[in-house]
TrEMBL record:
The modification N6-(pyridoxal phosphate)lysine is found at residue 211. PANTHER family: CYSTATHIONINE BETA-LYASE-RELATED (PTHR43500:SF1). It catalyses: L,L-cystathionine + H2O = L-homocysteine + pyruvate + NH4(+). Keywords: Lyase, Pyridoxal phosphate. GO terms for molecular function: cysteine-S-conjugate beta-lyase activity; pyridoxal phosphate binding. The keyword Lyase applies. Its EC number is 4.4.1.13. Belongs to the trans-sulfuration enzymes family. Its cofactor is pyridoxal 5'-phosphate. This is Cystathionine beta-lyase. It is an enzyme of class 4 (lyase). It holds the Pfam family Cys_Met_Meta_PP.
Length: 395
């Protein structure tokens, strides 16, 4: 096999790149995959080498061939100058924000952010002298009105966790960059396949690899990618703390990467069909799926996104907890639990009103978030159909 040059790689389609990125069989005795390197110590052959720290690898916390393989592949996919890997998505949020903030700074965070990210800002950053203001995710260029002289970063997440508001990222980035404010985005829903973050103005992008990179609900991983300006800051913060991802999890991430686009396309197709089916149900008040025409945020999705994933929410017509329990408790195929992105379908009840501070969350009935897995859609519909019958009977 002849090696691909960077120019060759740039010409390839995304599926081909996912197959080849971060992989060099000639360095692995011809084996297709980079194996799991476990290691702390790296040996230097001579006094002169160790004195001048000469060598491709220097110590376990600074990287291994396994870690480098996924970092390189993710940077290629995200169009980033560099990537670091963290042991969870939440750790990725933490490193991303720590990389661009210091004591005395002001941070803007979307009111629709992943709730543990809020807890990190309120519980950790506040302790270290960073002030957080939450903002309405509907703000585009108008976010400028909230900028203070010490605003250093804006955290965005689109669509919003649970509630699926779409943010105008290019407009926010343009306003922020006029003031040298760093734009951070949690891009877990779309992945770089469906929203290339850095090409849309994002400086530092976060991805919970726990979700679609894994695809199997079997590992925790986080990625932080950044552009030329911000990657040195990210790398420096990472090296100060050394929150290293485990070798097995990184290996599983590499394994998941090869099939990520195929899986995402299937989740997308299944979720869209399920969302349409739910939209036509009499028990459903509203579907929150930005890729569906008629859903809130569809215009932004159409303009900026290349696809949609398997996660969306619905608002039911008013129903008691008892009726909801009758529906959910006896589902046979949909599991009830947090996280998502695996092969299996999930449903979780949620209520954003308990933590929002600048926007109102007042749905007319209970809210459910679905992750649509890879099962046969007819089976999933039959499971929900029976659930809706139990809900109606208990109303
Ligand atoms: C799951 C998730 C995270 C955190 O990932 P963990 O690996 O579970 O810590 C961060 N952001 C979003 C949007 C998520 O859905």
């Amino acid at each position: 096999m002849k090696k691909l040059s960077p120019e060759d790689q740039a010409r390839l389609g995304s599926r081909t790149r996912l197959v080849h990125a971060g992989r060099d069989p000639s360095e692995q005795f011809g084996f297709v995959n980079t194996p799991i390197y476990r290691g702390s110590t790296v040996l230097y052959p001579t006094f002169d080498d160790i004195k001048h720290r000469r060598g491709r690898f220097s110590y376990g916390t600074k990287g291994t061939p396994t870690i480098e393989a996924l970092e390189t592949a993710w940077s290629d996919l995200a169009g980033a100058a560099g990537t670091v890997l963290l042991p969870s998505g939440l750790a990725a949020v933490a490193i991303a924000l720590q990389s661009c903030l210091k004591a005395g700074d002001h941070l803007l965070v979307t009111d629709s952010a992943y709730q543990p990210a809020r807890t990190f800002c309120n519980g950790f950053l506040a302790r270290y002298g960073v002030e957080t203001t939450y903002y309405d995710p509907a703000l585009g260029a108008d976010i400028e009105r909230l900028f203070k002289p010490n605003t250093a970063a804006v955290l965005t997440e689109s669509p919003g966790s649970q509630s699926f508001e779409m943010q105008d990222i290019p407009a926010i980035a343009e306003a922020a960059h006029r003031r040298d404010i760093c734009v951070v985005m949690d891009n877990t829903w779309a992945t770089p396949l469906f929203f290339p973050p850095h090409a849309r103005g994002v400086d530092i992008a976060i991805e919970a690899g726990t979700k679609y990179l894994s695809g199997g609900s079997d590992l925790l991983l986080g990625m932080v990618s950044a552009n030329e300006t911000w990657f040195p800051h990210v790398r420096r913060m990472f090296d100060l703390i050394a929150p290293c991802a485990g070798p097995e999890d990184v290996f599983l991430g590499l394994r998941g990467l090869r099939t990520m686009e195929l899986r995402l396309r299937e989740h997308e197709k299944q979720a869209l069909e399920m969302a349409r089916w739910l939209r036509d149900r009499p028990e459903v008040e509203q579907v929150l799926h930005p890729a569906l025409e008629t859903c809130p945020g569809h215009e932004i999705w159409k303009r900026d996104y290349l696809g949609s994933s398997g996660l969306f929410s619905i608002i039911l017509k008013p129903a008691s907890d008892r009726a909801l329990a009758a529906m959910l408790d006896d589902l046979q195929l949909f599991g009830m639990g947090f996280s998502w992105g695996g092969f299996e379908s999930l449903v979780v009840p949620f209520d954003c009103s308990s933590y929002r501070t600048v926007t109102q969350w007042r749905p007319s009935g209970p809210a459910l978030r679905f992750h649509i897995g890879l099962e046969n859609l007819d089976d999933l519909k039959a499971d929900l159909d029976a659930g809706f019958a139990r809900l109606r009977a208990a109303l």
